[in-house]
Every structure is written in structure tokens, then in C-alpha cells.
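[job 0417] fold request received: 1,3-beta-glucan synthase
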Amino acid sequence: MSRVEDLWERLVRAALRGHRAAAGRPAGGISANVPSSLANNRDIDDILRAADEIQDEDPNVSRVLCEHAYSLAQSLDPNSEGRGVLQFKTGLMSVIKQKLAKREGGTIDRSQDITLLQEFYKRYRERHNVDKLREEELKLRESGVFSGNLGELERKTVKRKKVLATLKVLGNVLEQLTKEVSPEEADRLIPKELKRMMETDAAMTEDIAYNIIPLDTTSTTNAIVSFPEVRAAVSALKYFRSLPKLPGNFSLPPTRSVDLFDFLHYTFGFQQDNVSNQREHIVLLLANEQTRLSIPEEPEPILDEAAVQKVFLKSLDNYIKWCNYLDIPPVWSNLDVVSKEKKLLFISLYFLIWGEAANIRFVPECLCYIFHHMGRELEEILRQQVAQPAKSCMSDNGVSFLDQVICPVYDVIAAEAGNNGNGRAPHSAWRNYDDFNEYFWSRHCFKLGWPWRKNSSFFLHPTPSKNILKSGGGKRRGKTSFVEHRTFLHLYHSFHRLWMFLFMFFQGMTIFAFNNERFNFKTLREVLSLGPTYVMMKLIESVLDVIMMYGAYSTSRRVAVSRIFLRFIWFSIASVFICFLYVKALEDNSNQNSNSTVFRIYVVVLAIYAGVQFFVSFLLRFPACHRLTNRCDSWPVVRFIKWMHQEHYYVGRGMYEGTFDFIKYMVFWLVVLGGKFAFAYFLLIRPLVEPTRSIVDMDIQQYSWHDFVSKNNHNALTVASLWAPVFIVYLFDTHLFYTVLSAIWGFLLGARDRLGEIQSLDAMHKRFEEFPEAFMDSLHVPLRNRASLLSSGLVLERNKADAARFAPFWNEIIKNLREEDYITNLEMELFLMPKNSGSLPLVQWPLFLLASKIFLAKDIAVESKDSQDELWDRISRDDYMQYAVEECYYAIKFVLTSILDDEGNDEGKTWVERVYEDIRGSVAKRSINVDVELNKLPLVIQKVTALMGILKKEHTPELESGAVKAIQDLYDVLRLDVLRFNMREHIETWNILSKARNEGRLFSKLKWPRDPELKELIKRLHSLLTIKESAATVPKNLEARRRLEFFTNSLFMDMPVTKPVREMLSFSVFTPYYSETVLYSMSELLKKNEDGISILFYLQKIYPDEWKNFLARIGRDENASETELNDNPNDILELRFWASYRGQTLARTGRDDGVKIQILYIVLDIPDDRNKLLKRIN
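[job 0417] inference complete; emitting C-alpha cells
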């Protein structure tokens, strides 16, 4: 009978799946067959999915879930009127009956079902280890190391969501079933502990996003949460006594208590995600300032008042300046009496406004206006002690700051931007961000009211016409104080002070030169002609101001327009008056009346005018006088003079350099201009004085060409032709002197800061042995062991310790270059540096420094006829050749001793020690060239190379036999061909070794190298003995060279000691992103343009070596095409990354952000004083 029931259940399930598949929806058990009329109730679908999930684990619990789903379907559609509902109910009831028939006992006891669900809930939760599951996922997500295996993180996330979703369904069904029994019975069946467990599991079902600190969710792996400064900041944001109580129906996450952000969220209707982001943002700001105060840790950390004050002043600095500029009181009447909690409330309000302001962030003074009024609303709510939505954010659809406050301003800005004709409309016809922001630089902005008075001219949208924009009938608010016109007149108008300075100086030097370099009354009178030149050029500037403002007079501020015309009238009168006085003075002087009253008046007027101009410029430009002039802004006369001198803007008022910087800047330009004017006078102007006089004095009666200019006019055109090139060179040679002096000064600064010491690969090779020490000196981390080695004079030990600490950093850089496909596998092997943690008494350098050095040393030894000292001197001339010889010498001994250090190999180990002892004795006697046949060294190298080639492989009996044979061959070569020692002193030892060799016992057993460090040493020794090509040109990739040279240069720069990360100022990096492609898809990479060229093909041709390196990294042939990668999804993903990193800036930005975390991990691996280092980094 059971077989019939099983077949019937399978038939019903198959029918349901077939019905679902026919509708075009994926099959998925009972849960995949909920009719569309019932699909709005997600509970039925979730319950049946859970029933399918646990069917094999516990059919009884699955039956209970199916019964509950049937009850929900019956209550939603009792008469089965919906499409497919009757079939669904029939099939579901059949499944329930089959499950019920398998139960022992016929009746259904609901209390037993509740107990069954409760027990299964605990059992299911324990079996899947929910707490550990969540912890493992968080640990992997927060570690930042999952980028290499995204599938692992995804698998853990899917598993966690699946398990918690099932638990949530079980909990919901439990709650529904308990409603059918009495409350007392329900409390007995579901204890409080289980209820709390169910609530916690339900809260963990959905992912709660966070940036750095999980404030709305629990985390056992995030260490930042436990920092005392973070706990103090979180505690300070809690609900305080002065805040009115929130209504009872306000929802909160179960993992935290109510805080002041919840109050602002309820009052002003900010978006939930914005509230979460800014809560975390402010916690980080407060924690950072608390850390910088260096307050001792306490059991219950409390946020210091000074930290709050600093964040308050930094955050609201612009608002405070805005209030002072408009001469209005801020939201608070007296800052000294504002409590810490109230300051935190204002900070939170400002950041919430900023976080939801969208493009209004580009109108910062508008944000000040909004904060000013919302702060006053907040004060009124606090005064009434009633939690209620703010009137400015209320609408018929609820409370929304975004809809009621931001959208009206955003809409008018978007309308202006959308109607600028894609940049073709005149600048005077539409408003940009500057115009909107500048509107809030005067008290007229308060006409907008609060809430917004939306019928104001500020909110009127522009009226588009066919080509350009209309002004909106004069009612719409237009430009403020600046209008841009596209014209070549900007060449003079934008740099008028420079042109005036150059023209006047040229005029003065020319006058001085034509007066034979004598300064007398005549020269003074002519030099005073600079007065009319100055006022006339200022008049030209004011005329251009009037012209540049054309087209915006009707929409611009009256103050801006009146200033332009006042300046025009002033310089018109000044130019007429000064020119008239100067002409009259010249006429009087021509009448031999040198003591003319008019000339005296002219000099006095000119002196007064120049003195006033100099005094005003001195006050407004010299840094030491800025504070004085700012204090006098309340005086109408001072404000008028400053306004006439320059338009009074809100921005830029405090952007002044320091006095010392200003003096350095002034001295620099005095030197530049001094060189320029000296060159101009002595090489351009003075040589032309005599030729000009000669030309002027020429009396040419007849011209080959008819000339209306020069005829009877002292050959004016000829003189102009002579001076025109000189004048043009004079105008434009300033850049030449600036470039030369900047290059000289930059060279001196670079030499002082030691920039560019490593300029080539050759320099990097030569100075590589200095890098470890320079790196440790630059790290600024005090290490106790290093200091003791330095003080005791153990240079080798200290160098080896420095190399051991430098190696991980260097190797990480090399591995990163390989991961980014800038170098090949061979180049990576050459550049990797050993750990230097072994017992060899020397520093092991990367192979690219030692490559081919052994063969060069061998050739020198074979061809040498010199003594031992002379031979060693020739080898030691190349430091790295010496290091290679020494490393081979010690490494061979270490390897042979290690593999012969086994039972039954005492003779082999004795042989190694005997040979090395005899070599040391020969070196001490200076007779190595006599005791050793140096011309046989190639044969020794050949035998050692063969042995290392065998030992670097995995162990097999055949390889072990080959290794024994190789050692025996090495013994024979050394014994019979190479060594010429006097063996009589140790005749017994050599007799024992000879007997063991003849009997076959010598080297019969080997201890195969299995230690990772020993195997690496064997591979390195084999490479040293086999690489014959020089590595002077590696890496070949230019980007790899640039990065290595940049890093090695930074080791020698004089840089200030950086503060620990926890004491650094808080900073954020914004990466502009709209709709760019971050990661190319394969279709985008393979899509061809009109020339038949795809992005991938283009990148392959630009980076051919990197493409080959990429194929080698993923294990493909270097000639493989991209189509061959389709069989492996991982290779396709790697290909997309490879192309995106070279074609998309945002992809590179995202990749490089993770490098900083890797560097911190490497720093933490430094063995000595780890706790000190960790504390310093934190």
C-alpha cells in the first residue's frame, strides 16, 4: 500500500510541476504552483517553499506547513473562483492526505503540531549552526580578501539566506498556530527565550547594508564596533531627555535603541537610507576627533565635549560664516550655552539635509538657508515638547523632506540646465549653479519664505523658444553679477592688470633709454606720462565691463549693474581730467615755464591718486592687513571702497595665503620680472635707440611705394616696423623666464627632498642592497631587535634582519605586477626576494641581480693565472658576483648536509664537512689556486646542477636513485679531478670514505627534501647555476619599470612622519559616476565599430606583452584566441577584468582601493614588536 501512496504523491507533484512549466514559469516543487490569483500573498509561496525544503528531513513538519498554506488559500478564496485555485487546492489536499496517511495515529492535535514545529525549529537551527553561518559570512565579507574567490562569498550568502528564510517561515507559522489556542497555553508552548531567538533570526533574514560600522545590525567580526571612541560616539547619539517622546508605532530595528536620528527622521521625513548613512558618518567623525584628543581609555567611554565642539565648528563653519556675512543671528542665540546634545542634534540635522540634497549640494548657501529655517522649526518643536512632523515637510502624501524642500529647488535648476540648448544658448539667457547660489548671498533670499513661497520669481521656470530662451516676461529671476560672452576681447579683459603693467613698464624704460639714461627734470616730466596711460587703460577696462554685461542688464542684480556704470563714469572723468592736466602742463613747459602751477597740480593729483590706489591695494592684497580690513567691513566708506575696487562676493573672502608664503611668492616674481626687464632693456630697447633716431632724422623725399604714413612724418611706419617685433617679444617672453627659473628652483627643491635618485633600471640594480635599510628607516616603526643589532655592531645580522622585513613588501609588489600581467612568470621568479629567515650567513638577493654572475665568475677563475687574492679581488669588483659566489658556496653545503643527514649516512655528512673544512684551510693559507683545479669548475657546476635538478622534483624511487648517482658522480669528480689537498693529515677519514664508496654504502640513503624552505633553496640554487642570460633589461614592460622606479625612489625621499590612521583627519573620496561601464561585458568587448575593430582587438594590439602574460596566467597558450576561452566561465570573467582595467578608469579605481588594505596586512606581518606596530597603525 505504501508503494501505491508514494506513486500517487509523485504523480500529483509531477502534475503540479507540469502545470507550472506550461505557464512558462520555472518548476520548483509545491511552491512553484501557487496560482496567480493567490500569488499576491507571499506567505503561501514561502510556506510551500519551506515545506519542499524540509520534506526529506521531516515529512510531519512539511505536512503541518502544507496544512497551514491550505488554510491561507481557503481564507483568501473560499469558493475557489480564481483561475487554477481549485486545481491547486485539490493537488495540495492530496499531498496533505498522503502525508497524513503516513502519520501514526489518525487525529490531528494542534498542540502537538506546535510542539513539533518548536522542536524542529531548534533542531533545524542547531543543525545548520545559524550563528556560525552568519559569522563566517561577515568575516569573509569584512576581511576584504574574497575578491579572488567571489563564488565562496556568494555560496555562503545564498546558504545563509535560505536557512534563515526557512526559519522565518517556521516562526511565522508557529505564531499563527498559537493564535488558535489560549494565551496561557501559547506562553507555555513557546517560551520567551524561543521568541527572542525567533525575532533575532527574522531580523537577520534580510541584509542590512552598512558602510564601515554595522549600527543597525549585529556583527561579531567587525572590530571597529568595539573601539572605545566608536562606542562613545554611538552612546552620545542616544535619545536624550530634552527630546519629545516618539509615538509608539515608530518602528526600530531590534538590534539598537532609539537615537536622535530617529527623532529627526520622524520630524522631517528623511529617507531611511540617508538616515543610516549619516548616522554612521557622524559616528566616524566624532570617533576620529575623540581619538585625536588622546583621552585615556575608560570602562564606559564618554564622548568629550571638545570632540563635539570641533566637529560642530567644522561642519557648520559655512553656516556660521553665512550668518555673519548677512548679519543675521544663527539658530542658536549663544553658542557657549548650547549643550553637547543640542550641538549633536544640529550636526545631525545639517548632515541629513546635505545627504538628501542631491544636486543642491552645489548650492551650499542654499543649504545654509534650508538649515537655518529647519533649525528654527526644530527649536519650536523642542520648546513645545511634542513630537510632530514639521510643517515645511508635510504634504497630502505624508512627510517628506525630499519632496517638499529639495524637489522645488531641484526642478527649477533642472529646468534651467535642460533649456540651455546643450550649451548653445547665450550665457545671459539661463541660470547656472553660481547664479542660484549667489542669490543666497544677500538678505533678499529671505523673500522666499518658509515653507517655500513657490510663486516667487526664483522658482519660475524659463520659457523656451525655438533657438534661445526668453526671460520669462521679466518676472523670472535672472543672472546675478556675472555674464559670460564668447569674444576675443577676453584676451585683454581677463588679464588687464598684466597688460597695463607691461605697457607702462615698456613706456618707462623707453623714455629712460631715449633720455640717454639720465634722470633729470625732462625725464621726470616724460615719465609722468604714465598717469594718462594708466587711466586710459582703466577706462578701456571699464568699457569692456559694460560691453561684457550686455544682454543681462534686465535680469542681473541692480547692485552689480550700478557698480559697472559707476566705475565707467569714474574712470571717464579721471581720464579726461588727468589727460587735460598733463597736456596743459606740457604746454606750459614748452613756454619755458618750468615752475608751472598746472604741472604742480598735476603732480599732486597724480601722487594722491597713486597713493590712494597703492594704499587700497596694499590693504586688500598684503596678508597681514586682511584681518584689519575685514574688521572695518561694518564701516560704509570701507565697504564702498572695497566694493568699487572689487565686487563684494561671499566666496573667496578668507582665501588668503600666509605672509611668509606671500613674501616668497613676491620674491620669486621679482626675480623673474627682474630678469625679464633687464633682458628687455639691455638687449631689446637700448640697442634700438640710436637706429631709431637715425631713421627719424632721415629726410627721404621720394619713396619707391607711395606712403601716406611715413611721408613728412619722420618715417613713422619704418620706426613701427622696427619696434613691432621687439614689442611682441617683450610681451611674450615672460613665460620663458618663468620656465627657466621654475626649472632651476624645482631642481633645487628636488635635490633637497632627494627626488629622482633612481632614474633607471641600472640605478635600481646598483643600489638595491640599500633598499632594505632605507625601507626600515622610512617605516618609522621602532623595532627593539634592530636597534640592539645596530648598537652592537653586528652589521651582517642587522642587514639580514632588514632584508627579512623588506622581502614581504617587495614580493607583494612583484606579485601584484604579475597579477596585473605587467611581467611574465620568469620575470616574477627573477624579482622575488627570499625570506632571508634561514641559516645561511648572508643576505639572499633577488635572482635578477645575481643572474649569470656564477658563469662570469667561473670564466674568470678558469682563465685566471693570478694568486688567490688577485682572483678574489677581480670577482669582488662586482658586488653581486661576490654575493652569488658566496651564496652558492653556503647553499651547496646546506643542501648536501640536509639531504645526507639521515641514518646510515654518517660517511656522506662527514665527507661534506671534510671537503668544506679543507677549502676553508686552503683559503686561510692563500693557496686555493694551488689546492683546487680551477679549470675543472665547469665540471663541478655541471654535476651540482644535475643534482639540484633532480632534488627540486617530487620524490619517486627512480629520482632518488638518480640523486644518489648524481652525488656519487660529484664525489668522484671532486676526489679525483678537482681537489689537490694534502690528505695525509686526515688519512683515516679519507680511507673510511673510500672504503664506503667502494662498498657502495656511501650516499646509499638520502633524506629527500620535503621542507618548503629547503625546496625553495634548491630551486633557487638550480636557477643560479642555470640562468646564463643577464637580467639587466627586465622587466621589459614600461609600466612595470615605472612602478618599480617610483617605489624605490620613495624610499629615499625626505618625507614627514605620518600619524597613525586613527589620528588622521577624516576624509572622503568621491568618485564621479553616472552611467559609465565599469566592467565590460563580452558583447561590448567583441562588438566591432565601423572599421571592423573591436575593443578587445584594440587592447590586444596596444598591450601585446600584457595579453600574452594574461594568457599565461590563466594557463592558456600565448597564441590562443578569445573564442577559446568560452569553455571556462572563470577565464571569461578574468578576460573582462583584464580589458576593463585597461579600458575603464573606474575599474582601476575600484581595484586600487583594495591595495591599501593589503599593505596594512603586510605591515602587520612584521614579527618584531607586533603589538606596538598594531597600535601605531590603528
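[job 0417] notes: Strands lie at 394-395, 398-399, 463-464, 469-470. The radius of gyration is 43 Å.
[job 0417] exit 0
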